[in-house]
Amino acid sequence: MILISHRGNIQGKIPERENHPDYIDEAIALGYDVEIDLWSIDGIFFLGHDIPQYEIPQAWVNQRYDKLWIHCKNIKAIEWLNRVRGFNWFWHEEDTLTLTSHQYIWAYPGKQPIENSIAVMPEIHNEEVLHCTGVCSDYIKRYK
Q1: Contact between 5 and 135 (Cβ < 8 Å)
Q2: CA distance linking residue 78 with residue 3, whole number of Å
Q3: In the chain, fewer beta carbons within 10 Å around the N or the C end?
């Protein structure tokens, strides 16, 4: 099963650290993939959920491409990722599901069971993840 830290969280939400590059690196060092929120504004990349918060160089994203599940937060981020290829990215709002660029089913919280999907935050609705390909959670350590 693929274990994905939600914005760097491992054992619960720490909002003041979410999407911070150091926090993401800590989760990767522990062996997890990480879902991040990526913005592109005037050719500059930022991490942050509701707003572009932490400026990051393109090299930072490139060096971690195989561990990141990139939630594009604006159209410019999608345009860039679609152009360079190789990254696993997606866009969604409150859709039941979306497909990532690597063809994974990314399921919105509360929509399980969807076979072979990535269950996002299954703990919110006490969802079964037995038939999922992976889990993305603020409490990802529980699923190890």
Answers
A1: no
A2: 24
A3: C
| ω into 113 cis (within 30 of 0) | yes
**C-beta of residue 106 within 8 angstroms of C-beta of residue 118:** yes
User: Among 129, 130, 136, which Cα is nearest to 100's?
Assistant: 136
Q: Give the count of domains, the chain.
A: 1
Segment 62-115, tens digit of pLDDT: 999 999 999 999 999 999 999 998 999 999 988 999 999 999 999 999 999 999
Q: Is the pLDDT of residue 126 over 90?
A: yes
Domain that includes residue 97, residue range: 2-143
Phi-psi category of residue 23: left, alpha or beta, with phi > 0 → left and psi -120 to 50 → alpha: alpha
Looking at the whole model, is its pTM more than 0.90? yes
Separation of alpha carbons 64 and 46, rounded Å: 15
